[in-house]
Design brief:
Layout: H1 2-13, E1 19-23, H2 33-36, E2 45-47, E3 51-56, E4 61-67, E5 78-85, E6 91-98, E7 101-107, E8 123-129, E9 135-142, E10 146-154, H3 156-187, H4 194-213, H5 216-220, H6 226-252, H7 259-275, H8 278-281, H9 284-312, H10 317-338, H11 346-349, H12 351-425, H13 431-459, E11 467-470, H14 471-481, E12 488-492, E13 500-503, H15 505-521, E14 529-538, E15 541-551, H16 582-592, E16 596-602, E17 608-616
Parallel strand pairs: 12-14
Antiparallel strand pairs: 1-2, 1-4, 3-10, 4-9, 5-8, 5-10, 6-7, 6-9, 11-13, 14-15, 15-17, 16-17
Helix pairs in contact: 1-3, 3-4, 3-12, 4-6, 4-12, 6-7, 6-9, 7-9, 9-10, 10-12, 12-13, 13-16, 14-15, 15-16
Length: about 625
């Protein structure tokens, strides 16, 4: 964009060049302007079309420039700006003829800005015409890089406009690079993605290198030490090549692709690294020629590989093709300019920069697609991690439950089995021994029954069949089935003799049996267990509340927050036979019947545990 717009602007407003010619006679470093300007050497000049390119050459090059005198301005002066590009030429000297000889104006990357004929980022000369007659100037160019020259001539007003226009376009170009970097940094995926990190590095390298090739580095940062700016430009050739190749290696995922293609790109990458010191050793001209050809080769292979990926239907292959093809076209044109096969037009030279900008746009598309893919991959990975964690947590819970179950069985069955073994080993067992053995069998049977019920609850196969029942009858049946029914003291509050309760008869008897049996087993010294029954409201529904309380013996108070957990048993509860499943079963059955059960513990004045059960009245009333 910069090259095209700047070139269009230049074509519209620049001052016409009457003649530009190059000296083709023998030239050495000792050749003087007097020899070149000798009328006898006139036939040694060949005409040019405003541009000149001799490829990578360290020898001096002489040019002849003829300009018509411009119109006089309001002050009567006739002034023109002669601008030479690129700004990184080593030396560009302009000779202006006078009656006494030639005035020498020195410019180039070896000349500090303060000593230049005109303090511009380009190699500019401000020349005056004494009258309205044309003038012929001579230019001597010598550079350690590619010897190409793009000459433009401007009247002062047009020069000022063109300078502002170029700076504006440069600002847009650099702004696009910064915008690309901000966009990549914003998504934060560059922290984990090597492709995006390399892309960020490439943007930084492009930014610095463009500052150098546009002349802003010497103008802004090293005005008195322009040699530093030239080093940045020269070494930037290799750094840009290395980072671009590295970027393409990651973009193509070449480490998982064909090894010959990877080897070629690695060769170009390491060549750029090896050639990096060339400007310091005075070998930049030779190294740059090799680097230009290797870079073009890599981009050509990348373009071919992109086409193959498009045929295969790989995601992002079109963006990869653009990222290779656009800079390839620019690199080919720029290479032909640098090697001297095309005219030294700065617009043509800048096509590589334009190509890289197109490549950056393609990479933005590629990175956007890659970010979407990475986000999906990260989301899938997070889901898998969560599933794995949930599975592991479930397996740990199952393993803990199995361990608790085995510990409970081992502990609770040991005593009954010991009693049964004692009975079997006795030749003449006493009645009490017989009773202990029978009780042991009953305890084992109860433990097995509760384990079976708990298993059905966990598997969700325990069915609820609610039906109306007389609350008084259910309590009488349950209490009369207890071996220690005399310990239970029932208190009725209100007239509930004919009241019906909505519950599953089997589950309800199991709940009441477990609560009463639990209260009797853990009561202090066979003390009474209190049961209070009364009508009650719960969450706006009519029902009945059954409160079962007992004073705790040596087993200690349970934790009311954990008492309904599976396999939970209070401190010192091991003195009493049990599975730790009874209250777990109670809690689940009550919830299935639409009721509620809570545990309350009182430490003073007597250690007391109360279970409060609420069940709804029948809806048929």
């Amino acid at each position: 964009m910069w090259a095209l717009l700047a070139g269009t602007s230049a074509a519209q407003t620049q001052y016409p060049i009457e003649e530009l010619a190059v000296y083709t006679g023998p030239v050495t470093t000792e050749t003087t302007v007097e020899r070149v300007a000798d009328p006898a050497q006139a036939e040694q000049f060949e005409p040019l079309n405003d541009h000149y390119s001799a490829g990578y050459s360290r020898k001096p090059h002489w040019l002849r420039l003829t300009l018509q005198a411009p119109p006089a301005d309001v002050t009567g002066e006739r002034v023109l700006h002669i601008v030479g590009k690129p700004s990184f030429l080593g030396s560009l000297i302009l000779y202006q003829p006078t009656e006494k000889g030639f005035i020498e104006w020195r410019n180039g990357m070896t000349v500090p800005v303060s000593q230049r004929p005109f303090p511009d980022r380009h190699l500019s000369f401000l020349v005056e015409f004494a009258d309205d007659q044309p003038q012929t100037f001579y230019l001597r160019m010598q550079t350690p890089s590619s010897a190409f020259l793009d000459l433009t001539v401007w009247q002062p007003v047009d020069f000022a406009r063109q300078t502002v226009s170029e700076l504006l376009l440069i600002g847009i170009y650099l702004g696009l690079l910064v915008a690309g970097a901000i966009n990549t940094l914003w998504h934060r995926q560059w922290i984990k993605d090597p492709l995006q990190r390399t892309y960020l590095l490439f943007l930084v390298v492009m930014f610095i290198h463009f500052l150098g090739t546009s002349g802003l580095t010497v103008k802004l940062f090293f005005p008195e030490n322009p040699a530093y700016a030239w080093i940045i430009v020269a070494t930037g050739t290799y750094v840009v090549s290395a980072t671009l190749i590295r970027l393409l290696i990651h973009a193509f995922d070449m480490h998982n692709g064909p090894k010959p293609v990877l080897r070629v790109f690695q060769l170009v990458f390491w060549a750029a690294i090896v050639f990096f010191p060339a400007p310091f050793l005075g070998l930049h001209s030779e190294a740059a020629q090799i680097m230009v050809m290797l870079g073009t080769l890599a981009l050509s292979i990348g373009t071919g590989w992109s086409l193959l990926l498009i045929v295969r239907g790989q995601t992002g292959s079109i963006a990869l093709l653009i990222a290779n093809l656009v800079p390839l076209v620019g690199a080919l044109i720029t290479s032909l300019v640098l090697l001297g096969f095309l005219p030294g037009s700065n617009t043509l030279f800048s096509t590589f920069q334009v190509g890289l900008l197109g490549s950056l746009a393609a990479f933005q598309i590629l990175l956007a697609q890659r970010r979407q893919w990475l986000e999906k991959a990260y989301a899938a990975a997070r889901r898998e991690i969560r599933q794995a964690e949930q599975t592991a947590q479930w397996e740990r819970a199952r393993a803990d439950e199995q361990q608790q179950f085995m510990s409970m069985l081992t502990h609770e069955l040991r005593t009954p089995l010991s009693l049964i073994r004692l009975r079997l080993d006795a030749e003449n067992p006493s009645r009490s021994m017989q009773a202990y053995a029978q009780r042991a069998v009953s305890d084992m049977d109860a433990i097995i029954d509760r384990c079976a019920i708990a298993s059905r609850i966990q598997e969700g196969i325990e069915r609820v069949s609610a039906q109306p029942q007389l609350i008084v009858d259910v309590l009488d049946q349950v209490i009369s089935s207890l071996k220690a029914e005399d310990q239970v003291k029932v208190t009725w509050h209100g007239d509930i003799a004919g009241e019906l309760i909505e519950a599953d008869p089997v589950l309800l008897r199991t709940v009441l049996s477990n609560l009463l049996d639990n209260a009797i087993k853990y009561s202090k010294d066979s003390s009474q267990v209190g049961l209070v029954a009364e009508p009650s409201m719960f969450e706006g529904r009519d029902g009945f509340r059954l409160r079962i309380c007992n004073n705790i013996g040596a087993t200690g108070l349970p934790d009311p927050a954990r008492v309904f957990e599976k396999y939970y048993r209070g401190r010192d509860a091991s003195r009493v036979s049990g599975s730790g499943l009874g209250l777990y079963i109670v809690h689940n059955f009550v919830r299935r019947m639409g009721g509620n059960v809570v545990c309350e513990v009182t430490e003073t004045p007597n250690k007391e545990v109360c279970f409060e059960l609420w069940l709804p009245k029948t809806s048929l009333l």
